[in-house]
Amino acid sequence: MISGKKTVEMIDKIDQMFPDAKAELAHENSFELTIAVLLSAQCTDNLVNRVTKDLFKKYKTPEDYLKVEINELENDIRSIGLYRNKAKNIQKLCRDLIDRYDGRIPGNYDDLISLAGVGRKTANVVLSVAFGMPRIAVDTHVERVSKRLGIARYKDSVLEVEQTLMKKIPKERWSKTHHQLIFFGRYHCLARNPKCEICPLLDDCREGQKRMKKKAKA
Questions:
Q1: Is 121 among the residues known to form the active site?
Q2: Which residues of 26-50 are buried (b: 16+ CB within 10 A; e: fewer)?
Q3: Catalytic residue among 76, 139, 147, 156
Q4: What is the pLDDT of residue 50?
Q5: In Å, what is the CA distance from 42 to each residue of 140, 144, 167, 217?
Q6: Helix, strand, coil % (nearest 5) of the chain?
Q7: CB of 2 closer than 8 Å to CB of 150
Q8: Which of 110, 141, 184, 201 is least buried, going by the fewest C-beta atoms within 10 A?
Q9: What integer pLDDT is reported at residue 127 of this predicted model?
Q10: What domains are there in the chain, each with its CATH number?
Q11: Taking the CB of residue 99, how many other CB atoms lie within 10 A of it?
Q12: What is the DSSP letter of 7?
């Protein structure tokens, strides 16, 4: 793995590439954000935004989601993967919000992960984006980029990647870096066709150098 100093140097270059990186899930409040992140599991943000454009007009509060039968909610999010399970979790989450939190999204980690469908990544996103807390949420892009760049080890679990990033990156930069790593992975260091040939990190990226050598031999 690379050092903390080298990690920050890489993050500085990514910062120059994506200075305005931010959450791309459309939302107007913490409740909508939580629903959107829940829906985004194994799904693109663009698809989620297309669905929530109408969904958030129809459902404004936790009570609204509980007024309809489960099959109606399923139909409203049918184009999203795992829609049946997600519809079930949304209604369970809304019931918990009403029964335990006065219908409001709680602003602490332990309460958030107690909600149906809310795991560590979702909780960290909500705390960072909606409540302004320094957090690093590890999604598929953050995990891939962190391992390719040598910030984390390929065998590391998602939790280990998160802990490594938190150790190597200054706390005041966690939230911004989280979004910048997502943008870097989504628009530059793509899963199948990373843009290694134009990457400003290529000289320090062993994965990128391996890929370039393979291309040269092909």
A1: yes
A2: ebeebbbbbbbbbbbbebebeebbe
A3: 139
A4: 96
A5: 9, 15, 27, 35
A6: 65, 0, 35
A7: yes
A8: 110
A9: 96
A10: 4-21+137-217 (1.10.1670.10), 30-129 (1.10.340.30)
A11: 10
A12: H
Per-chain mean pLDDT for the chain: 94
The SS3 assignment for 200 reads coil
- Tokens found for residue 34: 């939580």
Report CA dihedral (150, 125, 33, 64) to the nearest 10 degrees: 120
Q: Which among 204, 186, 203 is positioned nearest to 194, based on CA atoms?
A: 186
Tell me which of 76, 86, 121, 156 is the catalytic residue.
121
Burial class (CB in 10 A: 0-12, 13-18, 19+), 117: buried
One-letter amino acid identity for 8?
V
pTM of the model: 0.88
> Which token pair is 216?
């040269």
* Lookup result for tokens 């960072």: 128
Query: Alpha-carbon distance 205 to 199, whole Å?
Result: 9
Tell me the H-state helices in 18-138: 30-39, 45-58, 62-66, 70-76, 83-101, 109-113, 120-129
Q: What is the mean pLDDT of each run of 10 residues along the chain (218 residues)?
A: 92 96 94 95 92 96 96 95 94 96 94 93 94 93 95 94 96 95 95 92 89 80
